[in-house]
Amino acid sequence: MKKIGVLTSGGDAPGMNAAIRAAVRTAVTDGLEVVGIHRGYSGLLDEDFTDMDYSSVGGIMERGGTILRSSRCEEFRLEEGRAKAADILKKHGIGGLLVIGGEGSLSGAKLLMEEQGIPVVGLPGTIDNDIALTDMCIGVDTCLNTCVDTIQKLKDTASSHERAFVVEVMGRSSGYVALASGMAVGAEAIIIPEIPVNYEEIADKIWRERKRGKINCIIVVAEGASSAYTVARHVEHRIGYETRITILGHIQRGGSPTAFDRVLASRMGYASIKALEESEAGTMIALQGGRMVRVSLEKILSQKKTIDMELVEMAKILS
Ligand code: F6P
Asked: In Å, what is the CA distance from 153 to each residue of 147, 161, 170, 240?
């Protein structure tokens, strides 16, 4: 393998640039040529490539988003699309591919290897933290800090006006962001897709807190569990608590990565190139108990990341 390609795909995540930087610099140091592929799999199919070297990744670690840009590509979901991608990679002499993205992007990478024989290594880049067998994904920590910073501000105004706030955070099928950010701000209730929601129980709890003299109330809801509007309607209807809604939206995906994300992404970027060089393709670099490990994409994608029920119980007790 003399030349490798790097792409970012799916929803962007803070820290992707640090991963690109680490991968490019490690590869170049080891004598490999690196091609940056713009706009994920769409750019691959359009041959939207750029040569990368040590200096082309200077000054990017602190930047949010991804300098390679990203996309969700319908054509790549089809076998013909992946065959075309493989032909393009071969035509350009690209003998290995690093894919940084979430579950959908990694599934595409796995199929590209299985069907077309292209050596791939994946990195978990998604704020959702919904990829199995890795403790953390790139971008999660920054996202959580953004959520906490914003919800803390809402708490100020909630207290002044003695209101409840329902804050909707991202997470279509995973409640990790809601659970962790909710815990970090001491939210009175956290609603996640993994657990059926009981509006009566939530409203009653808030009512008890109110009677006990609490002057604010924060409910964090993951977008995949319910909507902020529905939750607010239930609370207002049942206990008449004046409620406001905030949907954090894509603010959660932006911003300069935290130190944790920069270090995690750098370690993963470095490890991904070593895995490609050592013919350990078909794997994803994961963080397990503080260490970087290579886990087969097959294993990762065949299971769903579960939520830690102890954290759920703890959040209930502590709020
Ligand atoms: O997969 C990450 C994620 O941020 C989800 O939590 C969210 O539902 C989705 O992406 C939104 O993606 P987009 O607006 O880019 O389609």
From this structure: 10, 13, 18, 23
